[in-house]
Every structure is written in structure tokens, then in C-alpha cells.
Amino acid sequence: MARYEDADWRESMRIRYDYTHMLADVVGEHRGTTQGQLDEMAGRLTAAIDVLRLRRSPNDLAWMDLPYQKDSIAEILGYAREVEGVYDDVLVLGIGGSALGVTALKSALLPYYANYMSPDVRRHPRLWVLDNVDPGWVMAALRLLDPERTLVIVTSKSGSTTETMAQFLIARGWLQERLGESTACHIVAITDPEQGPLREIAGREGYRTFAVPPGVGGRFSVLSSVGLLPAALVGIDIEELLAGAAYGDELAQAPDLQHNLPGMAAALQHLAYHRGQRISVLMPYSQHLRDLADWWRQLWAESLGKKMSTDGRRLNVGPTPVLALGTTDQHSQIQLYVEGPPDKVISFVAVERFEEEAPLPPARPKEEGIAYLGGHSLAELINAEREATAMALAEAGRPNATYIVPEVNPFTVGQFIYLLEMQTAISGFLYSVNAYDQPGVEAGKVATYALLGRPGYEAQAIELRTTQAARPRHIV
Fold it and tell me: Which residues are catalytic?
């Protein structure tokens, strides 16, 4: 029996949420939330859960059912077994939701410095993610790898993402130069199941393909083949990952605000936003979870930063997400958070049990200034610093909360991902915005297509160039 099938083990891995320092009786009436305000939010949570339940379907909010995709998991695991030992490197091409989730899984669930370990120790391919089109960076990655031992995964739901398809053209040429007719065996496409340029190319050239399910947007796709295929290829237990997500789904259905983690977190952030605390900081005290916070930053920004409400009102709403890392950013950002403008909510992520304790040896004679550290450990130190920082913020009247993760493993990472997605979905309901579109991003895409001469965008190109030519330039 897998450990995640044991109810007691699952309960021991339950993520909790400490919101003590978000309350008015701790940080002050004008900066914190009262019990009365929480009572008023309880009915809105019930309504949000009802709406999400009604919309939960393969054609709408399909991301909600990703933890239960048995057929897709069988296909992914079958392919991973099929190519076991064939490749030394897996190179993922993508951007935004097609890359951030993969990077988060890699950082959270592979050993530190896994790419630098010997193959005998690592026992799986190395994983590389190219999520930008900086030319020097892309070409340096290709020079590092051997085409004959590299699998390229190109991920674009639309199949036409400019940056990703530009990377694809370069990577395909790199493979073709060395491998010739064998190139197709080294490319996998993850895209729409039926349409789009990448789907057409893959069908014509014979690439292995995996589908992004309809109803799953990019930033909600990490628990689909987008994240699961690369994870499986490098040895991450994706079945446990999805079991954790399913447990998160179970926790997120609690109708009572006091027992619903994503609902409580969404309600508190929403109330803080309307008090003027419009910057949301996520600060994990774990190097493993640093890139998960980076993934959350896109999820929060693209989902909630909207001009229009769902009923057509102009809102220009959305909390600004900021990534910080404990303890690193205690020495770069905390001064601002404690004494700067009171416009932030800080959410810490605590890890109760690290994979290593790293005990500190006693200091030597005449080292009185550091003697107090002896007998402790780095695990104690990082958690003491997090707790002290939370206390200092609260004493300064700065609201903060803490997600408590028992340990970092596939189950808790899958659970945390799902809880953050649910928190975002509930927040979209509270802000009265569509959490699943991104019209601001689309405007930039159209301008890029026009400037690069994509067919069908000639009128936009003329308009852009005419506007720019008529505008005086001011350059220092």
C-alpha cells in the first residue's frame, strides 16, 4: 500500500494556516481583521464554493479534476518507462504556465544540485527549463547538451506561443543538424488535443504528443501533462503528487470558513486589500519552495489583476504579488516591510521537518560571540528566524500569516499547489473578476505578432508603426 493511501499519514501531512497575526486584536483595528468581518465573509465563501462546484466540468474549470486523471497518468508513466535510460537530459521549452510549474516541481522535489550529480547517483535524466528567449542563454544551453542524448519537450497549449515556437525552431534545427531523420524521436509536443500550429507540426513530423486538457489554462496546468510528464521522466512520484492534490481538493470543500484553508486565506487577503494592503508577499523559509512561490506569483497576478468585473464594471483591481525567500530576504526586504508603507500582507511558508537538520558544532574557546549557536542546528535557526520575523512584523502592526507544511514531499507539494489554486479561484469570486482570462497579456501578444509580420495582423502593424512615428521620442 502506498503511504498516501493511509488516512493517518495523510492527516500527518495536512498543511495548516496560522492567521493569528492577521487579526485586529494583534496588529491593530485599522490594519487587521475583526471576527465580525470574518463572520460576514462566511456566506461569501459558501457562495464561492457553490459557484465553483457548478462550473466544475471538463469544458470549463477542468483544472479542478486534474488530481483524478487516471488515463493520462497511465499514458505518462508508460512513456517514462518506454524511454528509461535513453536520454541523459530533458529540455523543456515553454514560458509562463508552461514553464513555471515545471521549474517549481524540479526545485521542490529533486535533490539540491541534482543536475550536477553523477548519473550513478542521480539515476534519472537532468532537467532543464528554458523559459526566455535571451539568445545567449538559449544557445549556451544547447552547447551544453548532446543532441543524441537529449529529449526536447515543447509546451504550448495554443501551439503558437511566440517565444516557445521560436525556441522550438532553434532546437529542432540543432537536433536536425546532428540527427537528421531521427530528429522526431527526440521531440515531444504538449499542446491542444486537436488544433493549433504545434499540433499540426507534430502530426506531420511524427512527434509523440500529450494533450493539455480543454478547460485548463496555462497557469493552472502544472498538474496536467505540462508538469507531470517532465516530472515523471526525472523520477518524481507523480501519483503521490496527485494524491496530495486530491487531499487539497477535499480540504477545500469544507463549507465552514473556520475550517477551509484556501477560503480563509482568500477572505483575509481580500479584506486586507480593501484596507489598502494591496501587496501580497509569499515568503517560503525553504530553498525547495522558492520556485513554487515564483509559480504562485504568475497564478495570482494573471488571475486577479483585471480591468473589468464579470458584470462589466471597470475595476482595475488586483493585489500585487511579490516573491521573497527566507532567510535571504530578511536582509533585503524586511526593513521595508516593518518600517515602510503599511500596504503589504506577508504570507510565510514554514517547513516543520527538513530533510536534514545540519547540527552546529560548538564554538571554540574565546568565541563567546557565537557560542550561543552551538548545540542548535540550521533547521532550528531557519525556523527561529521565521518566527522572530513574524513576531517583529506583528509588533509593528504589519499583518502576516503562515502556511505550515509538515515536510516537503510530493504529497505536500501537490496539496499546496491545489490549495493555492483554490485560494486564487475563491479570490476571483470575491473580487468579481474572471480568474481564467488574461486580456492584458493578449494585447502584448497581438502587438508582437504585428511587429514580426505574422499574417493576419497587417492592420495592427500599420497602426502601431504610425502611432510610434507620430510620437516624439525622449531618450537620455
Answer: 302, 331, 445
How do residues 422-462 score in pLDDT, each as one tens digit?
Answer: 999 999 999 999 999 988 766 676 777 767 778 877 777 67
The rounded distance, in Å, linking the Cα atoms of 324 and 389 is: 13
Check whether residue 78 and residue 207 sit in a common domain.
Answer: yes
Ordered alpha helix ranges (H), 60-160: 70-82, 100-109, 119-122, 135-144
Helices 225-233/238-252 angle, 10° precision: 140
- pTM of the predicted structure, to 2 decimals: 0.94
The tens digit of pLDDT for each residue in 373-385 reads 999 999 999 999 9
Question: The domain spanning residue 16 has which CATH number?
Answer: 3.40.50.10490
Residue from 342, 265, 264 nearest 30 by CA: 342
Helix, coil or strand: residue 380? helix
Same domain, 326 and 396: yes
Domain that residue 254 falls in: 3-56+241-431
SS3 200: helix
Q: DSSP assignment, residue 398? A: -
Mean pLDDT, residues 83-112: 97
Whether residues 262 and 339 share a domain: the answer is: yes
pLDDT in tens, 43-96: 999 999 999 999 999 989 999 999 999 999 999 999 999 999 999 999 999 999
Which amino acid is residue 47, in one-letter code?
A
Number of domains in the chain: 3
Residues 273 and 350 both lie in one domain: yes
On whether residue 253 sits in a domain, the answer given is yes
Interatomic CA distance for residues 46 and 366, integer angstroms = 62
